[in-house]
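re: that chain from earlier
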Amino acid sequence: MTRPNSSDRRPRLLLHVCCAPCTTSPVERLKDEYEITAFFYNPNIYPREEYYRRLEETRKYCGEIGVQLAEGPFDPERWVELTRGLENEPEGGERCRICIEMRLDTAARYARENGFDVVCTVLTVSPHKNARMVEEIGKSVGEREQIVFLPQDFKKKDGFRRSIELSHVHELYRQDYCGCEPSLRESEKRRAEKKSKK
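^ sequence. v structure.
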């Protein structure tokens, strides 16, 4: 894929996305400055039905707003192998670091191989994600793949609240756990505890 020669074109940005709701406010924030292609690569999502539900919602949303969507492979076996033994790590721990690096590394490679100028991720819109950790990982994989990583803390300036608003406007499915099987168990445990207190 060749790059346009026009000097006044917007830089081509590959935006790693994890679900439709988290795609909303980051795209809104970046669309005037960059030519965005969303990249859905999330082999951490469990179970398989949940993966396809999130992918379908992302397809629907990108179609509605006119953003091109590229889809990476669904290879959950690779994620399981990389995170083996870390099933009981808390969210934000080593399992999450490995998971984020896996996804951003694949996104950075895809961006380089397909002529993008910049790569970024929507993961920082979540209040459960450490933006500094995501930035460190992104810069590292960007250097390795020789592609510019754009650091963005999308939680800032009410980014998370705006994502909720836009999700309601577009009637998007919003999940209540990050994606992996351990995070699903943690979510189910929180729901059970909340229910028992009523």
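The first strand starts at residue 12 and ends at 17.
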